[in-house]
Amino acid sequence: MLSAVGMLIVAVPLLYSLLDATPGKAQAPGQSAAATSSGAGTPAALPTYEYDVVSIKANKSGSAIPGGRQSDVGIDVTNFPLVFLIQAALGVSPDRIIGLPGWLSTDRFDVNAKMDPEVVDALKKLSQDDRKTVQQNMLQALFADRCKLKFHRETKELPTFALSLGKNGPKFKESKPGDQPEAGIKVPDGKGGNGTMTVGEKGMMTFHGLPISYVVAILSQQLGRTVVDKTGLTGKYDFSWQFVPSAAMIRQFGGGATPDAASGNSSGIPSDPDGTDLFTAVAEQLGLKLETAKGPVEVIVIDHIEKPSDN
C-alpha cells in the first residue's frame, strides 16, 4: 500500500498542474485546445514551445518506490510509469483514455525534460489556463517525437461520479488572508493564494489554500472514472484527508489488493484496518458525497504509441 500512496503523492501534483482547469467536466468535440490527429499541436492564439533537452531511460531497478519533483524548468521523475505523463499530456483522467497498452503502466522510466530559460520566463507570463494548454502541448510533442503518439477524440456515454455537498455541508474551512500553513508558505489571499500539499504518516494529506478541483483530480485518478464537481465550492480551502488507495492503483503498483466481496463493496476500494476507504473518507472527513451518475464524456482514443528507446 505504501508504494501506491507514494505514487499518488508524486503523480497527483504533476497531473493536477497539467489536467483540465476544471477536472471531470466533459468537453464537446472541438472545444479542447489539444491536437487531435498527430498528437501534437497548438491553437494559433498560443505560442508553441518544446523541451530543450529530453532524456527517457528504462528503469531496471525493480523498486516499487517512485521518485520525482515538481519543477519550474520541466519534468524530473525516476522509476515512473509513463501512463501518468500521458494523462498529463492529454489533460484527462484515465477513464477517458482508450487503447493504452499495458506497458505504459507496468514498465518504469526515468524522465528528465528541461525547458530553455527563455521558455520558462515566457510561460510565467501566460494565464494559468493558457500555461496548462501550452505545457500539455509540449508533452504531446515530446511523446509524438519519442513514442510516435497519435490519437483522436470521440464522445461517449460513460459512467461517472458526481461530487456534491453532504447533508451538513463541508467539514473544512476556506483559506483566509494571512494564513500560515505548516509548510511555511504563506497564503496571501483566501481566494487566490498559492496552495500547498504536505504528506504525513500513513498517507495523511494536508491541503492549504487549494481549490476543490484538486480533490476532484485525486478522486478521478483513484476511481478510474470521471468525477463531476457539483459542490458549488469556488474558493481555496484548508483540510486534511487520509484514505486507503484504490484497489486498481495498488494492483498497478505492486499491492495485489482486490475489492472486498464479503462486505459487498464493488467500488474497487479495499477494506483495511489501518485506513479509511475512499467513499467513507469523502463523507466523514470532508463532508462531501460521491454518487454514481452517467453522461456524455469526451474520450481520447490512442491510435498508435511505441516504447521509447533509451537515449
List segments where confidence is low: pLDDT < 50 over at least 5 consecutive residues.
1-6, 19-44, 183-193, 250-274
Secondary structure category: alpha+beta
- Gyration radius from CA atoms, angstroms: 19 Å
Taking strands numbered 1, 2, ... along the chain, how are they ordered across the largest sheet? 1-5-3-2
- SSE ordering: HEEEHEHEHHEEEEHEEHHE
Helical element count? Answer: 8
Sketch the major β-sheet: 4 strands, antiparallel
The total of beta strands comes to 12
Beta-strand content estimate: 25-35%
Principal-axes shape call = globular
- Which range best describes the helical content: under 10%, 10-25%, 25-40%, 40-55%, 55-70% or over 70%? 25-40%
Give short descriptive properties of this protein:
311 residues; alpha+beta; 4-stranded antiparallel sheet; 4-stranded mixed sheet; 8 helices; 27% helix; 25% strand; globular; disordered N terminus
What this model shows, in words?
- The protein has 311 residues and is an alpha+beta fold.
- The protein has one domain.
- 27% of the residues lie in helices and 25% in strands.
- The chain contains 8 helices and 12 strands.
- It has helices spanning 2-18, 82-90, 103-106, 117-124, 128-146, 212-223, 247-252, 278-286; strands at 53-58, 67-71, 74-80, 97-98, 109-114, 150-165, 173-174, 196-199, 205-210, 227-229, 237-241, 288-304.
- The strands form 3 sheets. A 4-stranded antiparallel β-sheet has the order 1-5-3-2, with helices on one face.
- Strand 2 and strand 3 form a beta hairpin.
- Helix 1 (2-18) packs parallel to helix 2 (82-90).
- The longest helix has 19 residues, at 128-146.
- It is globular, with a radius of gyration of 19 Å.
- The protein starts with a helix and ends in a 7-residue tail after the last strand.
- Residues 1-6, 19-44, 183-193 and 250-274 have low confidence and may be disordered.
